Fold:
Amino acid sequence: MQIERVELRLVRMQLKAPFQTSFGTEHERECIIVSVHGGGLTGWGECVASRGFSADPLRSTTGAGGAPRLDWHLYSYETTVTAWHILRDFLVPQVLGRPLSSEDMVAAGQQLRGHPLARAGLEAALWDLTAQLQGIPLHRALGGTRERVSVGVSVGIQPSYEALVDTVDAYLAQGYRRIKIKIKPGYDLEAVKRIRAKHPDILLQVDANSAYTLADAPLFEAMDEHKLLLIEQPLGWDDLYEHSKLQPRLRTPICLDESIHSLGHARLAIELGATRVINIKAGRVSGFTESRRIHDLCQSRGVPVWCGGMLETGIGRAGNVALASLPNFTLPGDVSASDRYFHEDIVDPPFTLNPDSTISVPTGPGLGVAVNLTRLDAVTVRREAFV
Ligand code: OSB
Ligand code: MG
Structure:
């Protein structure tokens, strides 16, 4: 089967509520949806790069009076602009008009240095198409073993501790049994204490998105008293060395997110003692193939993994759910129901939460959900097709 056509779409979807982290606030999710067409089938993938083609790129980089704000950065260096370029000029030409093969999925983009988010967007679409051709669900193609995956919710920074506790209460009432809160300097230990005062036993973890330095070690030592499942990415986004100095001072496991870009990074981080848990995001590590390699390595080293999230649409979410069904994904993922993010998802059916804080893994071929083209068209702001 030959890949006859590839299409890129820039999509913008309003979030139900703004999502604030230590690095900035997102009101709207912008991503690239990749589709690959061949043999009468369509494979779908989502590239989770951050907003690039914004009408007002300076909005979030300037503060009062238009002065540059220095408290702002991106999760990754990749934006939808850089990813569009990499996809259009390097990756799409590699697969267009060529037969679909699993070697291509692995090889796609391997000659590139970096740009994992762009690579993963195309790779996901190729995996979906491959699974559809075989008539099997993506989770089976990946080696998943579960029918339902345990999930939690990632709670953005709230305007007050009262609002934080109310938000956490609301998610617990919806059935989420694992809560992650975003922290930043000045909104960290007290936030944890407020939640623990009301909910001494819930599964709770924090994510700093690289907002601290090794000089903040005493803060994390103090967090040891609060039975956190893990502390996610406390130090530099590209650091392993300082994390290896922090981890031995803590009982709570450090979990790396931003710092792990590949199997090699995962191996190095484990060898250095920089992390005891790894957050796997297929986007961040260039796709499902590399995710699976990291999963297997961690399994052999006794390092638990869980599936991170990037506020995905239903397309990316379907991939996350499939990935999270692999056996060493033993901690609940940041894979919440569609209605945690959007008023309306672009897949049917949307993802919903089961009463036991799980999401069911779709059983149909490929992603196992149908992309709703009417709703996808409604949120598409730019399109380019390659034949
Ligand atoms: O660090 O895990 C993160 C969202 C955007 C960028 C980075 C992160 C996140 C989340 C959201 O925590 C998780 C989700 O998709 O629910
Ligand atoms: Mg994170």
